[in-house]
Design goal:
The chain has one domain. It contains four helices and nine strands. It starts with a helix and ends with a strand. It is an alpha+beta fold and about 180 residues long. It comes from Dyadobacter sandarakinus.
């Protein structure tokens, strides 16, 4: 090795050795686990009847129900699709709308629209809705989960919104505190 390079390397080593200083203050605590605390709203929209009189559509005004929903919030609507036996208990099974039922005389679709002020759940499809069995049209129950937009954006790709149980876990939803709002 060239003798002129050795002193240069020693100077460089000495310079880099002097780049240490005192440790800085600790940073803020990071997120623990995989769940997020959200100040959104979860409620049940119950006793929903779809009839020819209401054109197979039922609406809920957020103001009348005293529910704060911002225009930018994500609103997820799940239909209670019956009960599933888990161990010794029956638990409700929720499916994300849009949900389709294939009937012998056509297709029935549960869907919803949401505006800044209200939520409408309605029936659609190829079937004559007036002839659909009452088990599909009366006493229906929907679970509505409102997720503030910034949390929805942050968790995009991290949670399967079609899986109600994954949403409950991700957003720490306390199901014992869910309010029931009756359809009018």
């Amino acid at each position: 090795m060239n003798k002129k390079l050795i002193p240069l390397l020693l100077v460089l080593v000495a310079l880099f050795q002097g780049c240490r200083g005192p440790e800085g203050p600790p940073g803020p605590q990071g997120q623990q686990g995989t769940s997020t605390n959200v100040t959104g709203t979860t409620f049940d929209f119950v006793d929903v009847d779809f009839t020819t009189a209401n054109d197979f559509q039922v609406s809920l005004s957020f103001d009348d129900a005293d529910i704060e929903v911002l225009e930018s919030d994500a609103v997820l609507v799940y239909i209670n699709w019956g009960d599933v036996k888990v161990g010794t208990e029956n638990l409700p099974a929720y499916r994300l709308l849009t949900q389709t039922a294939f009937l012998t005389n056509g297709i029935l679709t549960y869907n919803f629209d949401r505006t800044r002020d209200d939520l409408s759940v309605f029936l659609d499809g190829t079937v004559n809705r007036a002839t659909v069995a009452s088990s599909y049209t009366t006493d229906q129950s929907f679970r509505v989960v409102v997720i503030p937009a910034d949390f929805a954006a942050r968790t995009s790709g991290q949670v399967d919104y079609s899986d109600y149980n994954a949403v409950v876990k991700q957003f720490n939803i306390d199901e014992s505190k869910i309010v029931k709002i009756k359809a009018k």
